């Protein structure tokens, strides 16, 4: 198999195609801030406004498979969390927004996705926003659009858009990340005080690669609606597992449960950190598409050295093993154990560690920032772990 | 064939399933206003905020077919217009918003939809917002999300979310629609001064029914990615045409061109009407899902009599003919010639007519409102046309 499996599966961690299309259309994005914004929609010069889009991606397929195999519609609930949190945690990388609004867009094949399944997704949005309120994170549910479109959607697409405002003086720019900063990682495993189950760390990126490496062809044979029939048989669903299998490495989780594990939000912790440290936080990165190499697009002339990562969560080890994915590609596609990185002076770590523990989150200094000797504007990332040492340029 | 073809095709004009799911999740919508809103995101008590979601639906399939058949990627451009206008014109039904923001969400099968096709969609958003600026309708492009997800999306999904604010005192509530009001329809055919080609009137609703009634099985045989393989062969692509065929009735348009005709915006005209008539406009309805019966969900105890509609545009006559669709269902699924309805006193018609003509739009008194003798809260719609007389209850 080629070294870039993700590309063969019709997905891309680098998203070069999308970046190229945006550039061609004159819509290249700003790389000084993790999430983009405009001047204030209400015209207040001390505020900025944003409108952010993201979704649950092909994790919808895992939820669908689990619902089919177990007869339990609860599996659809996590998709609302994925779509909401993928937006919320991106936004929290630029600081503490004030009030937020969310709109959900669902595309379904109404032949396969029932009204009851829809209802699970929608009530999950309501439950989540209730929970977040107790951390003073206020998100208004603004309705949305559900389209029945089986000729375009094989099973289900769950997307969301989040709107809000943030005080300009509180914005966190990754331009402030500097040599000497430590990199604090927030673990994506375990269970926070506001979660009901352990997290596998998968979040909502790399699901295409994860599904095809873990799940066996028999899943797609039973449910042909979970596969693009144009995919090469060499790469499609080449794993050993049924969704309900429980390999020992996953310590009680089924493969489907691990792959469907809902994306954790770090917003309650980030809100507390910002309220104490303010602009002492030089930058925050959400390791989404691009995994541990996400940093490459942010900061100026930095060399991000990540040499003390969290242990690789067992799901990622299984994906790597059964997919025969190179370690270098694993770090480029998956978060590999931590999804949020904070850049700041080392003296602040103890405080972050304490606040994180209170919420059931592990924090750790996973590396530091040096000057990039090769460029004043571009960045590089070097990852050293038990898997080897890997160097990345944009 | 059954009388409700749309349902057999996996779509629903009534969207009863979606409404049920929303109700189950405690998220039933407000029917006093055509589009929903919350109190102001910036906390100003004299404003309201909205976040609205909609998309191009399965028109994406027509654009894809035409691009494949002609080798021209321009066909993808209209999809940005569909997604933008389906939001914009819904929003304009509650009044004149101030500044607007739009975020686009695209899901594609990257094996079939190229980066160049994406670029056409994105630059079309930019071109459209430029055009609207000349009518003082200001929409900020806020980026978005493009997901490569061929295992969930057969070809392409193009959605958008629009955010904005509106002065509370300018809000138009359909509760103000009253017996005695005339219904002014704004024609969806012809060519406005801000359009480059004639409009077939299809807009972005009923495309599932329209595609399957008009296009022949050979289209799906050549491009199996345009069909849900679970659809019954009795209803799927049962029409006589290839996308590039040009039946005489369409007066030079190909079938694909007519089905892909980009959704017209009436926002420039509505903005002018509101600036002159203000709250003299008692209500505005956008005939989207539900077609000419959309009114049923708005107003209180009204009987909407529509007895002088525009001539049925030829595309709809062809759909009805080849799909053997009942006239009653045609009015429930399609706009049948006008997409916007204004409710107000008859003395204001001449002014609206003049303003409409200046923009190349035909306006017409298509009916009037009476008291619903059967209910003080529910509404009914009666349509009388050359096709017959049809009565609708919710």
Description:
2 copies of one chain form a homodimer. With 394 residues, chain A is α+β, with helices and mostly antiparallel strands. Chain A has a single domain (5-56, 159-393), classed as Alpha-Beta Complex (Phosphoribosyl-aminoimidazole Synthetase, Chain A, domain 2), CATH 3.90.650.10. In chain A, 30% of the residues lie in helices and 22% in strands. The first copy, chain A, contains 12 helices and 12 strands. Chain A has helices at 5-8, 16-24, 59-70, 77-92, 115-133, 207-214, 217-222, 255-260, 267-277, 314-323, 327-333, 349-358, and strands at 38-39, 47-55, 100-108, 139-148, 156-167, 182-187, 283-286, 302-306, 338-344, 363-371, 380-385, 388-393. In chain A, strands 7-9-6-10-8-11-12 form a 7-stranded mixed β-sheet, sandwiched between helices. Chain A has a 5-stranded mixed β-sheet with strand order 1-2-5-3-4. In chain A, strand 11 and strand 12 (388-393) form a beta hairpin. In chain A, helix 6 (207-214) crosses helix 10 (314-323). The longest helix of chain A is centred in the first third of the chain and has 19 residues, at 115-133. At the A-B interface, helix 2, strand 2, strand 3, helix 5 and strand 4 of A face helix 2, strand 2, strand 3, helix 5 and strand 4 of B.
């Amino acid at each position: 198999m080629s070294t870039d499996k993700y590309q063969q599966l019709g997905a891309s961690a680098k998203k070069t195609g999308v970046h190229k299309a945006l550039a061609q259309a004159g819509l290249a994005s700003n790389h000084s801030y993790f999430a983009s914004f405009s001047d204030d929609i209400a015209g207040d010069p001390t505020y900025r406004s944003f409108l952010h889009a993201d979704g649950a991606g092909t994790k919808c397929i895992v939820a669908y498979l689990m619902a089919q195999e177990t007869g339990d519609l609860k599996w659809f609930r996590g998709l609302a969390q994925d779509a909401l949190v993928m937006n919320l945690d991106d936004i929290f990388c630029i600081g503490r927004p004030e009030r937020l609004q969310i709109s959900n867009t669902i595309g379904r094949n109404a032949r396969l996705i029932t009204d009851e399944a829809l209802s699970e997704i929608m009530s999950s949005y309501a439950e989540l926003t209730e929970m977040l309120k107790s951390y003073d994170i206020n998100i208004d549910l603004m309705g949305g659009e559900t389209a029945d479109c089986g000729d375009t959607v094989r099973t289900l697409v769950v997307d969301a858009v989040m709107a809000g405002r943030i005080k300009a003086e509180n914005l966190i720019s990754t331009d402030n990340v500097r040599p000497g900063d430590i990199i604090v990682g927030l673990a994506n495993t375990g269970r926070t005080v506001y979660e009901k189950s352990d997290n596998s760390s998968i979040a909502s990126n790399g699901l295409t690669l994860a599904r095809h490496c873990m799940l066996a062809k028999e899943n797609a044979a039973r449910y042909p609606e979970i596969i693009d029939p144009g995919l090469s048989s060499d790469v499609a669903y080449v794993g050993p597992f049924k969704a309900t299998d429980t390999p020992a490495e996953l310590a009680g989780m089924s493969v489907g449960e691990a792959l469907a594990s809902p994306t954790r939000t770090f917003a309650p912790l980030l809100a507390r950190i910002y309220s104490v440290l303010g602009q002492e936080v030089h930058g925050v990165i959400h390791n989404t598409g691009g995994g541990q190499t996400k940093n490459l697009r942010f900061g100026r002339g930095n060399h991000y050295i990540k040499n003390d990562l969290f242990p690789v969560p067992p799901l990622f080890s299984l994906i790597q093993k059964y997919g025969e994915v190179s370690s270098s590609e694993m770090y480029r596609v998956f978060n590999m154990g931590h999804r949020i990185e904070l850049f700041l002076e080392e003296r602040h770590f103890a405080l972050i560690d304490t606040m994180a523990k209170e919420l059931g989150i592990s924090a750790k200094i996973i590396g530091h920032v040096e000057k990039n000797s090769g460029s004043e504007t571009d960045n590089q990332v070097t990852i050293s772990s038990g898997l080897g040492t890997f160097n990345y340029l944009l």
